Amino acid sequence: MIPHLLVWIVPFLLPAQQSQTDSLKNLLVQADNDSVKASALYHLSKLYYTYDQDTAILYGMEAASLAKENGFEKIGANALNIVGVSYLIQSDYEKSLSTHLEALGIRENLQDTVGIIESTMNLGNIYYRLKELEKAVKQYEKSLELAQLINHERAMSLLYNNLGSYYLDRWLSWKESEDFNQTKAYLEKSKAIKEKLNDKRSLTNTLLQLGELYYESGEKQQAILLLRQALEISQEMNDTEGRLSSLGTLSDYHRDNNSLDLAIAYATQAYELAAETKSNYQISIAASKMAHLSALNRDFEKAYEYQRINEASNDSIFNDSRAKIRAELEVQYESEKKELENQKLLKEQELAALTITRKNELLLIFIAVAILLIAVAWYQRRTNQKLRAVTKKLKEYNTKVKSQNQQIQLQSDELNSSNLQLKKANHFRDKLFSIISHDLRTPFSSLNNSLDLWKSGDLSKEEMDYVLAAIASDAHAASSLLSNLLTWARTQMSSDEVEKKEVSIQDLVASNQHLFAKQLEQKKLVLENHVPANFTVYTDPDRLDFIIRNALSNSIKFTPTGGRIHIQVAPDHPSALLIKDSGKGMDENQIDSLFENKQFSSSGTDGEQGTGIGLMLVKDFADSIGAGISISSEKGNGTTFKIIFS
Question: What's the Cα-to-Cα distance from 320 to each of 280, 308, 447, rounded to whole Å?
Fold first, then answer.
C-alpha cells in the first residue's frame, strides 16, 4: 500500500493548471517585490510537483533561497516541503529526508502546527518507502496526535488511512487478529471522515483497502460491495486510475469465486479503459488479465490475441524506457557539453580582457617614461626622484603581469581537467549502454518465454514444475545482474574517493557465510572459515565485501552437492586470502576469459544461471582499492580464488 503524500492542495485539471501556471509566470516577471516573487515561485513548484518533479524542484529551491535571504520563513518551509515530496516521488530518499527535516526545523521554530503535521507525515512516508516501518509509524502517530489536538479532519483522514495501510500489510503477512482489528478501525475512521468531507477522490483508495481486508478475511460479499462503491465513485470523479484498480480487483475476486463471466466482463471494461489511456503499462496489465481469463474460458483464440497485445505493450514499455534513458543521458551530455563550452568561452573572454588591460597598462607606462625623458633635460634634480618612482612602479606592474599569467595558466589547466572528465563520462555512458543492451534483456527474454509457456495452461504437472524452475532461475539471474550492475554503476558515478579503514577479514567472511546460509544448506556444502581473528587489512570495506561475496557465490555455484569450501590466509603470502572449493574447476581458456571486458557465464552444478559480469566488476573494484586478483584451477579438481592485499 502506498501512503498518502501530504501537501495542502487539491490537484487542478490540466487546463486550469496551465492557466494558473501562465498567470504565475507573468506575475513572476512583473513583480518587483521579493515576497511576491517567493510566493509565486512556491505556487509554481506546487503546480508542477505531481507530473514534472524536476521543474517543481527548480522552482521550489529558488523560492526557498529567496525566502531565506529575506526572512520569509513560512514560505521557505512550504517550498522545502514541495521539494521534499518531489524527491520522494523520484525515489531520491536521502535528499527527500534532509529537505523535510530542514522544513520541519523551520516550522517547529515558527510553532506552525499545521506545517509540523505536514512535515512529520511526509517523514513517515519516506521511512515507509525505505521499509523502516517502525520509524514510519512513530512519525504517523506523532502527526496524528497534533492533528487531533487541533481537530484537523483532512490530515486525520489521511493519517488514519496510512496507519490502516501499515496494519493491513502486517495482517496480510502474519494473519494476527490484533492487526486485523487495527486495520479495520483505522480504515473505517478514515472512511467516515472522508465521507463527511465529501473527499471522494481520496475515499476510493480507502474503499479499495477495506475491500481487500474483507475479502482476505472471508467476507467476500462485503468486499465486493465496497469495490463496487469505489468503482461508482471513481466513475463519478472521472478517476481513471481508481476505475482501473476497482475493475481489476473485482475481476480477480470473481475469478477466484468461479464467476468467470463476471470476471471477464469486469476485465473487458478494464481493458477498454486502459486502451483509452494509451498507456502501454496499463494496456499490458489489462491484456495479460484478459489472456489468462480467456484461457480459463477455453477461448484460446482470444487468449492468443490478448497475449500478443500484452507482449507488444511490454516491448513498447521496454523501448520507451530505453528511449527515455537514452534521451536523459543525451540531455545530460549536451547540458554538460554546453556548460563546458560556456566555461571555455568565459575563460577566453577573461583572457581577452586581461590582455587588453595589460596592453593599456603598458601604454600608460610608455607614456609616463616618455614624459619623464622629455622633462629630464629641464628638471635634472627632480627627474632622478621621478625615475626611481617609475622604476618601482614598473616592478609592481611586472609582478602583476606575472600573477595574471599564472592565473591564465591555472584556467587553462582547469579546462583540460574538464575535458578529461567529459571523456570519462562518455566512456562510462557507452559501457553502461553496452551492458544494458546486450545483457539485461537476455534473462528477461528467457523469463518472458517461460511465462508464456506457463500461461498457456495446457502443461502437465511435471512440465509446470520445470517451467517454474526455469522462471525462478531466470529471475535470480536477472536480479543478480541488476544487483551487481547497480553496485558497480553507483561507484562509477560517485564522486567520493575510496574510504579505507581497518577491516576484520574473519568478520567479513562470517557475514557472507551467513548471507549464503540457505544456498549452502540446499547443496549440503561445508564452508570452513579458517581466517584468524587478528587478520585485518586497511581498505574500503564495501568494495572488499563485494569481491568476497562474488568469489564465494561462484564457489557455491560450481561446487557439487556435499562439497567443501575453505577460506584461509595464504601459507606463502601473509597478506593474501584464499577461497578454495572442491568444484568442477576450469581450463586455462576459461580462466583467461574471466576478467576480459566481455561477459563469460556457465551453469552451476545444480543448473544455476549466472549473469557473466560479476568477476568483470570484481576486477574493477579490486583495482580501485589496490588489491590483486588471481585464479588457479583444474578441470575436475576445484578452483582457488586469491585476493592479494598491498
Answer: 9, 18, 20
Residue 468 vs residues 413, 459, 471, 606: alpha-carbon distances, Å: 59, 11, 5, 15
CA angle at 314 for the pair 312 and 320, rounded to the nearest 5°: 100
Q: In whole angstroms, what is the distance from residue 474 CA to residue 441 CA?
A: 11
- Contact present, 248 and 267 (Cβ < 8 Å): yes
Separation of alpha carbons 125 and 80, rounded Å:
16
Instruction: Centre a 10 Å sphere on the Cβ of residue 156 and count the other Cβ atoms it contains.
Output: 19
* Residue 363 scores a pLDDT above 80: no
Return the HEC string of 576-611: EEEEEECCCCCCHHHHHHCCCCCCCCCCCCCCCCCC
d(CA 202, CA 328): 33
Phi, psi of 247 (to 5 degrees): -65, -45
Q: How many angstroms separate the CA atoms of 617 and 547, rounded?
A: 9
What is the rounded distance in angstroms from the CA atom of residue 30 to the CA atom of residue 629?
A: 65
How far apart CA 263 and CA 258 sit, in angstroms, is 9
Bridge partners (DSSP) listed for residue 629: 643
Q: What are phi and psi of 631, to 5 degrees?
A: -135, 130
Q: Please tell me the distance from the alpha carbon of residue 488 to that of residue 621, in angstroms, as a whole number.
A: 8
pLDDT over 90 percentage in the chain: 51
In which region does residue 298 sit, left (phi positive, over 0), alpha (psi from -120 to 50) or beta (all else)? Answer: left
Confidence of residue 32 (pLDDT cuts 50, 70, 90): confident
> From CA 89, how far away is CA 126, in angstroms rounded?
10
Q: Residue 611 pLDDT > 50, yes or no? A: no
469: enclosing H helix or E strand: helix 461-493
pLDDT, residue 9, reads 38
56-91 pLDDT per residue, tens: 999 999 999 999 999 999 999 999 999 999 999 899
* Listed range (168-177, 323-332, 370-379) with the worst mean pLDDT: 323-332
Angle, helix 93-110 to helix 113-129, in steps of 10 degrees: 160
Q: Which residues, at least 6 apart from 276, have a Cβ–Cβ distance to it below 8 Å?
A: none
Under 8 Å between Cβ of 228 and 250: yes
The 10 Å CB-count burial string (b at 16+, else e) for 621-635 is bbeebebebebebee
> What are the residues facing 640 on neighbouring strands?
580, 632
User: Cell triple for residue 364?
Assistant: 600608460
- Cα 351 versus chain centre, distance: 42
For 212-217, which contacts have Cβ atoms below 8 Å and span 24 or more sequence positions?
Answer: 212/168, 212/249, 213/168, 213/171, 213/180, 213/183, 213/184, 213/187, 215/253, 216/171, 216/172, 217/180
| 292 pLDDT more than 50 | yes
Report how far apart, in Å, the C-alpha atoms of 474 and of each of 193, 443, 459, 468, 594 are: 47, 6, 19, 10, 22
Is residue 276 a contact partner of residue 302, using CB atoms and an 8 Å limit? no
pLDDT tens sequence across 304-315 = 999 999 999 888
pLDDT at residue 216 tops 60: yes
User: Which residue type does 135 have?
Assistant: K
Residue 630 near residue 579, CB atoms below 8 Å: no
Average pLDDT over residues 554-576: 92
Write down the pLDDT at residue 221. Answer: 93
Element (H, E) at 529: strand 526-529
